[in-house]
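for the record, two folds in this file. i put them one after another cuz i was lazy. first one right below, seq on top, structure tokens after. the second one comes after a little note so u can tell where it starts
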Amino acid sequence: MTELSLAAGFASVSGSSDDRAMVLAAFMAFIALSLLLCVLAGPEGDTTADFYTGNRSLTPVQNALALTGDYISAATLLGVSGLVAVAGYDGISLAVSSCLAVGVFLLLAGPLRNAGRYTLGDILALRSPGPSSRIAAAVATLAVCLPFLVLQLAGAGSATALLLGLTGLGAAQVCTVFVGVLMVCFTVLGGMRGTSLVQIVKVAVVFTTMVLLAFLVLWHYGFAPGALLTAAEQGSGLHDRYFEPGHAVGGSAVGRLDFLSLQLSVVLGGACMPHVLMRINSAADGATARRATRYAVAIMTVFFLCVVIAGLGAAGVVGGQKIRGADSSGQTALLLLAGDLGGGISGLAGNVLYAAVACSVFVTVLAVVAGIALSAAAALAHDLHAHATRRGRMSERREVRSARWAVGAVGGLGILLAAMAQGRNLQSLTYLALTLAASTVLPACLYGLFWSRYNRTGLLWTVYGGVLCTTALYICSLPFSGAPTSLLPGHDIHLIGLQSTAVLAIPAGFLLGWAGTAAGRRARPTAGAGTDLRWRERILVGVREE
């Protein structure tokens, strides 16, 4: 999500000052409710299980709602609906890919929960005990979480400034700091249980809003799907080519490869984001984790069906030309649709519709950054401090205190980077985060769970090699430099004409894991059969938590 997208959306919608006042009131109400929930539902004692997993007290339905909240980011909400509006087939296929990400995670939820305890480091240390695996896990977690955190904070800051009627770079930076401090407070006060309840409230708000918006779109076209599809086809400006592939990144061979790469990053990277892995560790056991994930798949399917309907409605009601005029990527489509539909509803109802959609965007950003910050802080406190540095000889009280300080450190770094990045196009950071997850976390988890020969050398090659390879590919690609929409538009060092380099980075991550394992087997003997059976048993049935 770019910060400029929301600005263009608000500027393009014929909303009155009453609309913005209502959005601001709803936004502040959500902040107050979230802080209250974090205080009331926060950790009851200074125990790691309470702070990191909420003592695994959430029911499968609650866990499913919180997991759904982790998957629904502002980039997902605005990006998918916008791509459906301006690119038709490509947007619909991206919505399907987003659902498939949860489906892939469903296959891994049980083994990951059985193998893990709190963090990614606990999963990787099952096969490779020692500080090196903990450090590698912390590096992978921070590498994935920081770009995503900066993206969300920067977008939230600029949108909040616009909502308050403030303009200029300084105002956006001040609002970024404000949103970041709120995020730190949510996480420090609430821990996993508090942030989970915030996610549940967010899902309730966003899901209800999208169902209402989809209902109004269908009502606008007399509940005739054929009429909706025809109107979207004509209004998009693409006419009979609307439901053909190739509009998002071009129909050439390079464009098709680029879109395949984007879909791979969404499906595989979305299935193993560190904050999602930490979320599933809050389930009681592997069976409960699978049940919660099944519920999440159902919720996500309905949600993305509503998103697709809203995107089609935006193409038909608003028109592709107007949407592209506000933002070429279409990320303002939901706000523009709410403005146009609200204009056809008399009085208060129209204002409420516009306020609900706008507030849903802000709510989505705030809830997501709290979960990301918690997973990054847990990597610092649990993996680096408690295990890599102190070798596990740290009291739970001191570890929780360390985790709270780590939240402040991660939040402060994210706020600083987001404030410095204001005014830049940060959408490519989504590609970077997803590709890093798919090329480092996914192969490390799959090899660790299912390949008996995987060893410490293979793990280190997977993580460090994957991070370096993916970062180098990103720096050499168009999203970083060489185009007006790049992160550094004034420079041109790109060598790869792809928006997403996942199609190159993901195979590299798996190959590095295989090559490192082969090299490690020559250097040291493999573990005995007893050890092999123990980790297999742990993955299959888990262990009872103390």
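(here's the note) second protein begins now
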Amino acid sequence: MRRLFVALAATALVGLAPLGAFAQTTGAAAKPASVSTDRFSDAAIRQILAQRVDVDRQSRGMVVGVIDARGQRVIAHGLMSAGGKPVDGQTLFEIGSVTKALTSLLLADMVRRGEVGLEDPVAKHLPPGTVVPTRNGKAITLIDLATHTSGLPRLPTNMAMKDPLNPYADYTEAQLDAFLRDYALPRDIGATYQYSNLGLGLLGRALAYRAGGDYETVLRKRVLAPLGMTNTAIALSPAQAVRFSSGHNAALEVTPHWDLPSLAGAGALRSTADDLLKLLAAELGYADTSLNTAMADQLVPRRPAGGDVSVALGWHIWPTPDGDIVTHSGGTMGFQSFVSFNRKTGLGVVVLSNTAGVMGVDDIGLHLMAGRPLKTAPKSRVAVPLPAAAFDKLVGRYAMAPGVVMTIRRDGERMLGQLTGQPAVEIFAESPTTFFLKVVDAQLTFTVDAEGRGTAVTLHQNGQNTTAQRLADGAEPPPPPRPAKVATLSSAELDALAGRYALAPGVAITVTRKDQSLFAQITGQPAFEVFPESPTKVVWTVVPANATFTLGPDGKATSLTLHQGGRSLPAPRSP
């Protein structure tokens, strides 16, 4: 869980990531494909993995599986942990949201058997007394959950998280039931795609209850066993545990494995490249199984997901002139995964990494599937020694924005930077005036006077350069400026926006009213005044960001959407 070194960062959502947009390659700039003219050759793939693991330092160990009409093969590079065994086709990884594709295959199979219907209300297949929210007289159905159109949020807002590094571990079914009972849907059911781990977790729970068992047992009997996926599981045998890779954060530090007892259908599975190739062999028709009909039913595009991408039951589908590319990716605190296939070309690809790297693995998968360019790693930086006396001349407080100060200080041999309301992070010298961070891709450049004393510092992050002037001793930064145009709202209109809005597990925006002013505070950051542009929109002036509110029938806000840096993050209001 990376802490972003910015004043008002849209929180880094940890966990089970949805498919990235295909219409535009996101992240770092693209580089040409491998020097090999055949991007499918073992040598070309091994070169990509060596670059990503050894040079870019984006993973401790990676495995790629490829299947086509000629057969299947696995190419691996790296280790299960520092000094550990090499990864290979039998190494177990957390596959995160790729679990959703298997949960949805279970749904398709149960529909084929006549045990459930896609239009069944999910409440029909949950324990008696379970209350599921409705809207305008419509109930959430199984197909709404499988296509991320239920109106449920990405995650429930009552996740207390005793251990932020294993955020789902202590979330109980009783807590899930309490959330569902009190939650008000902010949009019509079936109307809009919004990726929801909660929704697929609830689907897995409902299917298991209908089948009369726990999720893992039902999935093993109905899906994993027919496919021969004997090394895909939640609870691992002793023999499997030995082959279960350590997970790593972006700094290549070991991070705990995840447990999802109440939302298992969203991302609890561990698997191997060899097992996932068995799934692709069946999907591509190279293996005949009892699930062939269910697989075909599962792949029917059901609802739009954005751009030209549609969502089927658990899979995302990207139409191309060479056939539909079916795909899903996943991520946990220490692993990343990508699984994709194209029935027309007969090609399937698996990419697994035991690290939550900044670059991800989707670009490798899409490069192999469709020739998309690979990402370029952030610039490699080397720390150099800096005398304490030289650094002490930079120590001070710098006004990054109204109400936001960057404090630079030294702790023994360590050099630290800290933004208002955020933890201190270590900074590393590249030169007497340039520094970089390792926890995020950010750099600092100091302006100094003739004596080498810092007079200003510029933060370089996310393509933006923010300069902060040094504050005189004891001085405070100026208050936030007021926009040129501010709407005048009544006390009732201001009160309608006040509340707590859940951005992610353990991260919320709290909006409060003080007299005739509104303030917004993201968890772990200071409160800043926000200024109304209308009864449903407020703007920050400390950073370029705004929030729009959705009002319910009673006139009170039911959700907000944070707009910043080209991203829009929905946040439902907590009860």
